[in-house]
Amino acid sequence: xxxxxxxxxxxxxxxxxxxxxxxxxxxxxxxxxxxxxxxxxxxxxxxxxxxxxxxxxxxxxxxxxxxxxxxxxxxxxxxxxxxxxxxxxxxxxxxxxxxxxxxxxxxxxxxxxxxxxxxxxxxxxxxxxxxxxxxxxxxxxxxxxxxxxxxxxxxxxxxxxxxxxxxxxxxxxxxxxxxxxxxxxxxxxxxxxxxxxxxxxxxxxxxxxxxxxxxxxxxxxxxxxxxxxxxxxxxxxxxxxxxxxxxxxxxxxxxxxx
Length: 258
Fold this sequence. Notes:
CATH architecture: Beta Barrel
Number of strands: 13
Number of helices: 2
Order of helices and strands: HEEEEEEEEHEEEEE
Shape: elongated
CATH topology: Porin
Distance between the termini: 42 Å
Number of domains: 1
Largest sheet: 11 strands, antiparallel
Helix content: 10-25%
Strand content: over 45%
CATH class: Mainly Beta
């Protein structure tokens, strides 16, 4: 039995070493534009919250823990940078990739708490202990977006190259990895969220290579990313929010094969 197991192990190692030896090593990098999808920030009060006293909310309300709170955030297009190290074997490629993106907030809107639309109510309602109107509605404060969302991702990608007789090589791929999401929401300069979280992410990829010289390619690709929601805490309210992390990016890069 030992002899059989030893032979099997040696055979497996030999095949693995042969595949590794036959594979071509490459490195690459890219710059891209990322369209961060809108986020429906779904939250829950983690403790009782007493509103500020403003016009229409007098006396103040106490919202028990467990009640919903949330709003929608829209983002501007942002930037993305990537680095990759991969191995190519015939039509297949395996790749380790690092990607970093950043998108500014365009606007926040549709703020509600405990089923109450706060859009037209004075923003002082959001500050526990506040007395008197601040002179701007919750909707106006939220509309002046400010803030950003940053992501740092590490992926293991797999590709299939549709090789042909031309200098162009279309390809498709999929990836799985981990993404850390850093959320900064500060509408009208008021800090609401400054926190981060990480979770599993997936991406679907399609693109085309163009061979400039042997071993050197220009690469255009489109990446659709969908990841776990980032769970973050508010610095203004006793509440926790799930921030959606979904994006579409368009990249232009280079790859050098050794």
